[in-house]
Amino acid sequence: MAEEVKLFGTWASVFSRRIEVALKLKGVQFEYIEENLSNKSPALLKYNPVHKKIPVLVHNGKPVAESLVILEYIDETWKHNPILPTDPYEKAMARFWAKYIDDKLWPAAREVAVSKGEEQKGVIEEIQKQLKTLESELKEKKFFGGQSLGFVDIAANIIVWLVVAQEALGMEILTEEKFPVLHGWYQRLVDDAVFKECMPPREQHLSFVKVRFGSSTPSK
Amino acid sequence: MAEEVKLFGTWASVFSRRIEVALKLKGVQFEYIEENLSNKSPALLKYNPVHKKIPVLVHNGKPVAESLVILEYIDETWKHNPILPTDPYEKAMARFWAKYIDDKLWPAAREVAVSKGEEQKGVIEEIQKQLKTLESELKEKKFFGGQSLGFVDIAANIIVWLVVAQEALGMEILTEEKFPVLHGWYQRLVDDAVFKECMPPREQHLSFVKVRFGSSTPSK
């Protein structure tokens, strides 16, 4: 059966990039629709009436929203090249860490980009504590998912955003010296052929973050 | 093999009650350990070092935290009497709604209990919008899970907490008149034999909410 797979996203969003990575890891063909978040399309509003947010995956006309929910849907629908472990306990651990990243790391990462001075220092300390926690989970593994990248690695693309933000905004958060284990993981992640394909163009991303969050902009 | 299943919880928490419901629906024997949140046990801190929160399920010595993660773990470990659908799309929808309840309804429900006057009116309106959204998802179904209670019904036990809070604090949020569909669901839920067994004793719960959130208490 010919399948119709559409992804509504926006290029700078870590959340829509997650879905691209998963679809490409599975080799699923899809149509990507770039949304303008200040003028959302009627299709996006129709497919995600509850949150009116990207990403939305539409599979044969049926929409799924929320990036981690979409990742699980993709993994259960196209079963080859699994991104989640099959063992229930390992699967629970993967879900736990992905939720940790979304509930703890992402709000702090957003906060650090809009804060200044002492406040920013406090947020950086908070983020570094979280990164240490993630590092102690990673230990000597190549990826959170083991030998190849999986659910938590994909969710942890927020760390790639954080590294872009640290460069764009002149902060020092994740350095090789402070986080040797996580830094090694980061290098393997951005060097991964599929992941690399799904990263925003670096210069464009840097200047986007500078304009959006840099000190020259009056808006928070 | 003799299994060891322990649940660390606290009686008034909707999140630990969720786990009790799931374990009882499955007929899994477990030991319940009541935690004192103002003096957490070394065991809880050992089993959930990241969040230091209840509920934690410990299965043969291995801990799982975060209530929705625990529910999925239970459903995958003891496969009879499933609480999640098997179809990937229906499963994604269940996850979407459970996440909606935790991300949107729970923060608003907490907020309504600590707010006053005009601010409280605003939060009540917000909650009622969310309840309408849930009602439009429920439609004519007996439970969110279909003919019997499932993942979303268990997650939606927050609504039962909300009904207790509305009575304890003299608010009008979920009435039969305003929410006929959801009110019918609420009645079926609290009449369900397993669910009923896992509800906090009503009078104790009412006075707990009054003391914790009532206007006579100075703390927020």
UniProtKB/TrEMBL annotation, chains A, B:
Stored InterPro entries: Glutathione-S-Trfase_C-like, Glutathione-S-Trfase_C_sf, Glutathione_S-Trfase, Glutathione_S-Trfase_N, GST_C, GST_C_Tau, Omega/Tau-like, Thioredoxin-like_sf
Origin superkingdom: Eukaryota
Catalytic activity: RX + glutathione = an S-substituted glutathione + a halide anion + H(+)
Coiled coil location: 117-144
Domain GST C-terminal: 87-213
Gene Ontology CC: one annotated term: cytoplasm
Keyword annotations from UniProtKB, A to Z: Coiled coil, Transferase
EC number: 2.5.1.18
GO-annotated biological processes: glutathione metabolic process
Keyword Cell inner membrane: no
Domain GST N-terminal, first and last residues per copy: 3-82
UniProt-listed Pfam families: GST_C, GST_N
Any one GO MF annotation of this record: glutathione transferase activity
Family indicated by similarity: Belongs to the GST superfamily.
Protein name per the record: glutathione transferase
The species this protein was found in: Vitis rotundifolia (Muscadine grape)
